[in-house]
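Annex B. Sample input.
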Amino acid sequence: MGSARSGRLLDAGAAPLGIADRAIGLLSERASAPSVGDAASTLSAMLADRRRVADEVARSVGASASAADAEFDEAIADGARERDRGLDLARRATDVLVAASGGGAISLSHPAQRLSREATFFLIQAQTADLRRATMHRLVTDR
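Annex B, continued. Sample output.
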């Protein structure tokens, strides 16, 4: 996993992708409606891409942990941007699950509600200064 220098960044990135994966799984179970199945397929492809890129970034951060500060700082900045993308995917996937679940999703015991709360928690908890800047930039710019 690299040195202690890189551990904090890498540890926080997996949870949002796990939340997205669970939300996509629950959407797939409800895929009898074509629009839900299409959404699950699209989100699943996005998740596969996020995981691939996250693995690449993790390798880059790990490899640069003993490198010069500038190289390491760039790898960390890449990692922060990728964490933001993972957090965004978790929110999107849980929002789609809530929409597909309808009114039942408002219940505290409903899995869509719980996953949505978890995605929001990680959006807040995972915030470093770099990630806050990336998140705020993403939220106020066109996609």
